[in-house]
Amino acid sequence: MSFSIPFIHKTLFSLVRINASRRLYGKNILRRRPVRVLNVPEDKVTLIRDETFSPKLQHTSEIKTEDTSIGLPRNKDGLIVPPYEKLQKNDSRFTKTLTTLKSRKLREQSGKMLLEGKRLINDAIDAGIELETIYFSRDKELSDIKFKFQENVEILKVFYKTLQQWSNLTTCPGIMGVFKRPTTEKLHILSEPVIPVTIICDNIRDPGNLGAIIRNAAAAGCENILLTKGCVDPWEHKVLRAGCGGHFRIPIINNIEWTHISNYISKSSTIFIADNSGDIIESSSTPEFINYDEAPEENGDEEVEIKRYATMNECNQPISVDETYNDPAELEKYEELTFPCYLYSSIKFPKENIVLYVGGETHGVDARVVKLACDYGGKKVKIPLENNMESLNSCFAMTIILYEIKRQLKEKYILK
Question: Which residues pair with 228 in a beta bridge?
Answer without folding.
Answer: 256
